[in-house]
Amino acid sequence: MILEVFVSLFIVVGAFFALVGSYGLIKLDNPMARLHGPTKASTLGIGSLLIASVAYSVLQDDLSLHELLITAFLFVTAPISAHFIAKAHIHQHIDDDEMPSPPRDTSWAVRRPPDPPADD
Amino acid sequence: MIFYALAFAFGCLALATVLAMWRLIFAPTIGDRLLALDTMFIDAIGLIVLFGIATGVQTYFEAAMIIAMLGFISTVAYARFVLRGDIIE
Prior knowledge:
The complex is a heterodimer of chains A (120) and B (89). By secondary structure, chain A is mainly α. The longest helix of chain A has 27 residues, at 67-93. Chain A has helices at 2-27, 36-59, 67-93. Chain B has one domain: Orthogonal Bundle (Helix Hairpins), CATH 1.10.287. Chain B has helices at 2-25, 30-55, 60-84. The termini of chain B are far apart. Chains A and B meet through helix 1, helix 2 and helix 3 of A and helix 1, helix 2 and helix 3 of B.
């Protein structure tokens, strides 16, 4: 009985945070701020659903832990894909004079390098 | 009780997928389009996990794992294409 409550609670929490993630995608008004929304869906939402799934397998006397593999995979890959999306956005929509100057190099890695001086 | 929680969760995730698709269609920048596609992959994983709980079949988790991997690879490949105009240089 208590395990059933546990499973139901985690299913509801996971679904709620998945919805919050997509709502953030619609609601937030800045493209960089919109990166925040779906991360809640992928960590809290899917994480809770997979915990519920593991608990449900315990409820059925058939313990399976390979759902945790999906959680681990998502936790590793979500920052990488977010980083790439931010890079793509900076590359396309932010001008050079809006960016801070890079610490050591002459230009940021996402930027097209400055044209080499014409040798004439 | 699990039945009602599952019904609520299916509704929430379906709505989340529709919202992400709205953002995918009416996206102001290409970064939003990438992000909406990534969110739709996440929602698809959630739906498959819920379906696995609802039917009690273990096999669906392999499908969810494969979709997680495909979602990551396709997001990175698309972002790479936007950045470089080429995926494998």
